[in-house]
């Protein structure tokens, strides 16, 4: 047995047997290489065909065409009067609150309405035809409590009183009427004098004829010299009367012209005086309007837009506000007919910002509404700012600069889960901007391409 085993070992170690055992069959090698080649080709084709986009994230704020307006105090002091409640609908220009000051708010508002009516009625045109715009302020009280507006109001009140007194007394109009009456009387006397002049002229002509006859009769000795002298005296007297009448007519004509000149002067004085009073009154009214606006700017908190007022840190009278701090916010009412009333404002970091283009798709994930429960908003890049803004302007944490991007929301606040989200001012979130697709193969060769381009 031992001898047989020894012979087998010798046979296994023989050179011919080892050659047979170490040779791979050709068909196995051929099919293996083919299989590996097919796998490599499939991987290359798959990596070239499979593409996925880059995603660039940016901080986004959802806002509206008319963003919420902040009502900021311009003076420090207690809230003297509060006119609205939280979430109350307000119109642009409505009084929200008044900060404590020396003026009576009702008096100021009454005066403001009076000035508005005055401007609406009496603006432009002839002052003589616009007196109704001034007469409506006859009810004005000199004792109105207007604080720092009091001085200019006193001047306005005085100017208004002088204007109305001028219109009431009618000094120049009465003087004009008297002058017109005197002119009419003088013109009538002038006509009578002219009639008398014609009669005297005719009488003087007759007296002259009689004197000529007496001269001829005197030459014939029929009329004595004494009678001739008497006839001449009567003739000269008639001529003198005629001259006197002509002088009276001329004098009357001069007086009429003087009265007409006086009439023109009086009318001019009336117009100038009325214009002066009217101009002064309008100037003071304008100054008073400016003073009221300055008072409102300092002490009145007004709604800048239509919408709902929202209380922030202040909600009742006697609370102390500080100048420069926000007291209220007014949220604009949404317009259902406006397709892009709501939009996103994103801050895009400079890094990789060149890949972002207008029209690219954007997925927005809001912090207020978890995406697993509510879904996400979808939008498109509408506009990209040409220059970046500094970190101070963007209030960024890392001190970098950012481009601002406008994102339109075609479906407004309807999410991918078909849920309509309520509009909340300044909703924060993350915007994922979907850039162009790049294949796996391109991504593999991009670093090599960069290395080769840098080495050349």
Any idea what the radius of gyration is? 54 Å
CATH topology of the largest domain: Helix Hairpins
Main beta sheet: 6 strands, antiparallel, barrel
Question: What is the general shape?
Answer: elongated
Q: Would you list the SSEs in sequence order as H and E? A: HHHEEEEEHHHHHEEEEEEHEHEEH
Structure notes:
The strands form three sheets. A six-stranded antiparallel barrel has the order 1-10-13-12-11-14. A four-stranded antiparallel beta sheet has the order 2-9-7-4, with no helix packed on it. Helix content is 51%, strand content 20%. The radius of gyration is 54 Å and the shape is elongated. It has helices spanning 2-12, 15-21, 26-49, 105-122, 132-135, 150-169, 171-220, 225-299, 371-374, 391-394, 440-455, and strands spanning 51-64, 69-72, 77-82, 89-90, 95-99, 300-302, 307-311, 320-321, 326-332, 342-349, 361-366, 377-384, 402-408, 427-439. It has four domains: 2-49, no CATH class; 70-94 and 303-333; 101-297, Helix Hairpins (Orthogonal Bundle), CATH 1.10.287.1490; 338-455, Beta Barrel (Elongation Factor Tu (Ef-tu), domain 3). It contains eleven helices and 14 strands. It has 456 residues and is of the alpha+beta class.
């Amino acid at each position: 047995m031992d001898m047989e085993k020894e012979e087998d070992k010798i046979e296994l170690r023989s050179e011919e047997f080892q050659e047979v055992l170490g040779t791979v069959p050709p068909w196995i090698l051929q099919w293996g290489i083919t299989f590996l080649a097919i796998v490599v080709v499939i991987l290359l084709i798959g990596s070239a065909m499979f593409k996925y986009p880059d995603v660039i994230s940016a901080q986004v704020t959802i806002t509206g065409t008319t963003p919420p307006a902040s009502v900021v105090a311009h003076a420090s002091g207690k809230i003297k009067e509060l006119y609205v409640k939280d979430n109350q609908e307000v119109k642009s220009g409505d009084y929200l609150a008044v900060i404590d000051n020396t003026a009576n708010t009702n008096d100021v508002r009454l005066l403001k309405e009076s000035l508005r009516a005055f401007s609406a009625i009496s603006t432009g045109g002839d002052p003589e035809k616009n007196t109704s715009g001034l007469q409506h302020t006859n009810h004005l009280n000199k004792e109105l409590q207007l604080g720092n507006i009091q001085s200019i109001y006193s001047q306005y009140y005085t100017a208004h009183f002088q204007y109305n007194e001028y219109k009431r007394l009618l000094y120049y109009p009465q003087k004009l009427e008297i002058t017109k009456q005197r002119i009419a009387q003088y013109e009538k006397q002038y006509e009578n004098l002219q009639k008398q002049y014609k009669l005297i002229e005719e009488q003087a002509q007759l007296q002259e004829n009689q004197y000529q006859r007496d001269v001829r009769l005197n030459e014939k000795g029929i009329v004595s010299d004494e009678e001739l002298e008497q006839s001449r005296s009567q003739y000269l007297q008639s001529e003198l009367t005629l001259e006197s009448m002509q002088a009276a007519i001329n004098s009357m004509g001069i007086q009429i012209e003087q009265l007409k000149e006086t009439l023109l002067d009086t009318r001019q004085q009336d117009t100038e005086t009325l214009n002066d009073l009217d101009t002064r009154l309008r100037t003071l009214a304008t100054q008073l309007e400016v003073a009221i606006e300055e008072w409102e700017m300092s002490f009145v908190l007004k709604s800048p837009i239509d919408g709902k007022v929202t209380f922030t840190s202040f909600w009742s009278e006697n609370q102390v506000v500080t100048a420069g701090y926000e007291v209220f916010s007014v949220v604009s009412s949404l317009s259902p007919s406006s397709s892009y009333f709501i939009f996103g404002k994103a801050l895009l970091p400079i890094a990789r910002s060149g890949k972002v283009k207008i029209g690219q798709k954007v997925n927005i994930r809001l912090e207020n509404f978890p995406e697993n429960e509510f879904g996400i908003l979808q939008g498109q890049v509408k506009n990209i700012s040409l220059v970046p803004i500094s970190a101070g302007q963007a209030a960024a944490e890392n001190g970098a600069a950012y481009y601002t991007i406008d994102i339109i929301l075609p479906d407004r606040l309807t999410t991918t889960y078909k849920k309509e989200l309520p509009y909340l001012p300044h909703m924060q979130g993350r915007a994922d901007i979907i850039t162009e697709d790049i294949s796996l193969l391109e991504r593999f060769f991009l670093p090599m391409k960069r290395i080769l381009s840098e080495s050349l």
